Structures are given as C-alpha cells and as structure tokens.
Amino acid sequence: MEIIVNSVHVKIDKKFEEYIKKKIEKLKKFIFDEGEAKFILKKEGDQYISELSLHTKYFDVFVKENSENLNESVEILFNKAKKKLRRLHEKVTKH
Length: 95
Description:
4 strands; alpha+beta; elongated; Double Stranded RNA Binding Domain; about 40% helix
C-alpha cells in the first residue's frame, strides 16, 4: 500500500511519521487489495485537524477529526477509520 503523509503548519518528526504509517498498516487487514492512503495533519488556530483518505479497488474512505490535542486527534481519527473499514469489510464479505 502506498502511504503518503503530509503536514500543514505542523512539524512532525520521523518518529511520529513512522507511528502514523504503522497505524495505517494495521488498517490493511480490512482492505482486500493494494490501495493508497493519504494522511494530512493541519493546524488551524488552536485546533489540530487530521484527515485520512483510503482509496482501494472496492471502496473509498474519508475520515476527518479535529481536536486541541495533536495525539488525541490522531487516535480518534484512526479509531473512526477502523470502525468504518470494519463495516465496509463485513459488507463486502457478506455479498
């Protein structure tokens, strides 16, 4: 899976970028084929906005979360993405 990590008005170090990539790799178990994942982290005012878009052969998923805490924003985003992907995965496997 191709993983793209971008940040706007926020500096992220290599360790944090690797952490994000590991979280995205864990989501691969819900995806049947190779796809593309784009993660964007922005800071607008005192809010951190994290966005994740996954594009696969069977479905596209977009999740967005904002919070005043950077880590909280990322964790909530990945929890939402996991739930959404699990539902889509179940829908595809049942048909």
